[in-house]
Design a protein that fits this description.
This protein is 71% helix and 4% strand. The protein is mainly alpha-helical.
Length: 228
C-alpha cells in the first residue's frame, strides 16, 4: 500500500507539475501581478526549468507520501507541496510571491486540515496550526515593517502559510522551519557577497529559502528538534 501510494503520488505530482500556474506578467514596478498567473503546460514541457518543475513536483509529492503516509492530513500537504513548487518557480523567475496563490493554497490547506481534525479528533493540531500561521504572519509582518527592503509582502504571507503547515506538528517545528529558512538565506547571502555574485544593494529572493527551511524541518525533524 505504501509503495503504491508513493508511486501514485509521484506520477500525479508530475502531472500536476505540468499545469501549475506559473505564467504571469509583473506590474511595471515589479511589485505586483498585472496579469495571471495561469498554467502554461506547453512551455513548461519545452523549457529546462519547466521540466525541473515537473520533476520537483513529482519528487515532493512522492516524498510527502513516504513521510506522512495514507493519513487524513496527506491531501493538505499535497496541496501545500504543489503551492510551494509554484511559488518557488514564480519567485525565482519574477521575484514575486502572488498573494492570490498563497491565500488560495492557505485556504485549501486550512479546509483540508479541518477535515483531518474532524476525522481524527485532532482539534488541538488544527488550533495549533492556525495559531502558528497567525504568529508567523505577525512576526514577519513586524520584520517587514522594520526593514521593508529586506522582506516583501509576499514573504510575509508565505511565512504564515509555512507556519500553518508546520504548526500542525508542533510550535517548535514552525519556529525551527522559519528559522532554518532565515539561516539558509543568510548563508547564501554571505557566500554570494564573498564571491561578489551580489552586492550589498542586491535584493535577495527570500521565498525559496523559506520553503527550503520548512521542507527541511518537515522531512527531517517534524518535532522541531532540528538544531538539537
Amino acid at each position: 500500500m505504501t509503495a503504491a501510494l508513493i508511486v501514485g503520488c509521484i506520477v500525479a505530482g508530475a502531472a500536476v507539475g505540468a499545469i501549475l500556474p506559473v505564467d504571469l506578467v509583473a506590474s511595471p514596478d515589479g511589485r505586483t501581478v498585472a496579469d495571471g498567473p495561469r498554467p502554461m503546460p506547453r512551455v513548461v514541457i519545452q523549457q529546462w526549468w519547466g521540466r525541473a518543475m515537473i520533476v520537483a513536483a513529482g519528487t515532493l509529492w512522492g516524498g510527502l507520501a513516504a513521510r506522512i503516509g495514507a493519513t487524513w492530513e496527506l491531501p493538505a500537504y499535497l496541496v501545500l507541496g504543489a503551492g510551494l513548487v509554484t511559488l518557488t518557480v514564480i519567485d525565482l523567475r519574477h521575484q514575486l510571491l502572488p498573494r492570490r496563490i498563497v491565500f488560495g493554497v492557505g485556504a485549501a490547506t486550512i479546509a483540508l486540515f479541518g477535515v483531518a481534525a474532524v476525522a481524527t479528533e485532532a482539534g488541538d493540531n488544527f488550533v495549533r496550526a492556525v495559531a502558528c500561521a497567525a504568529g508567523a504572519y505577525l512576526v514577519f509582518g513586524l520584520l517587514r515593517f522594520a526593514n521593508p527592503r529586506a522582506l516583501g509582502g509576499g514573504d510575509v504571507t508565505l511565512a504564515g502559510l509555512l507556519g500553518l503547515s508546520l504548526g500542525w506538528y508542533s510550535v517548535a517545528a514552525a519556529v525551527s522551519g522559519l528559522a532554518a529558512g532565515a539561516i539558509l538565506a543568510a548563508l547564501f547571502a554571505v557566500a554570494a557577497l564573498a564571491t561578489r555574485r551580489i552586492s550589498r544593494t542586491t535584493a535577495l529572493t527570500y521565498g525559496p529559502f523559506l520553503v527550503a527551511g520548512a521542507l527541511l524541518v518537515l522531512f527531517a525533524a517534524p518535532d522541531g528538534r532540528l538544531f538539537g
